[in-house]
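Aim 2 progress update. The chain analyzed this quarter is reproduced below.
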Amino acid sequence: MRVIITGGTGQIGRPLIADLLKQGYEVVVLSRSPGVVKGLPKDVIIEGWDARTAKGWGHLADGAGAIVNLAGENIAGEGFLPAKWTDERKKRIIDSRVNAGKAVAEAVEQAAKKPGVVIQASAVGYYGPRGSEEITEDTPPGSDFLAKVCIDWEASSASVEKLGVRRAVIRTGIPLSFEEGALSRMALPFKLFAGGPLGSGKQQFPWIHPADETRAIRFLIENSNASGAFNLTAPNPLSNAEFSRALGKVMGRPSFVPAPAFAFEMAFGEAASLVLTGQRAVPKRLLEAGYKFQFTDAEAALRNIYR
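Predicted structure tokens:
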């Protein structure tokens, strides 16, 4: 089965590629700069695209088993610290996602033999800040910037459903990537013996181990009855303070030095919401569909990552 992946060089895409290749899938990665992509397995086919249309790659969708659309500008920016959400950045963040989704929909429309499924990326930010309320896929969307991003992101490829193509939307939590993302940023103060909760620490931390992220995506590809929205988060979400304690324990560091909320707000503006708010999202529909999590305990997940 051929699987086409957009955004395949990110923290979700790379482990997903490795997992699919291990299972015998043919993997095609779309890149705006195919000649300079590094670090992907040799068996991956890399094709160019403009991230806006089906030009030059749309033929690959004909008869494909799945298209996994992960493309979009990094919400937090490319640096170690979050980048401020200027009006220009906000536009790039939304446009990069909407344009990629429309390109996928265009390729599906042109395909004589439609792909088996489109996996559309999204995030639990769809629900907006919710305090300690338990969030399932039935919870309505929020109204902040991140919620708007996710609403538009999900809608960008929705037209494929009218063509009879199954579509699953993955509302991902926080993948615990050792090399990049939220975990690498959180771990640095702990290395310096200055770790602790961010802000009040009461905000929810909807984590997921990368192994479960990739296995869940493959589960949705292979499960012909899986359609609609799915929260990709571990079944046991924690508060930021609880997760910080688990991280400190695994790293052998104290976890009692809080990082004040006002410092984040002064430094990063609206983007501070990335660390100061959260969602207690649970994977209700994924569990009902029969997916079995490999990692349900945050400390065990962190020990596996840091081993």
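The chain has a mean pLDDT of 93. Residues 2-176+207-235+281-294 form a domain with the Rossmann fold fold (CATH 3.40.50.720). These observations will guide the mutagenesis experiments scheduled for the next reporting period.
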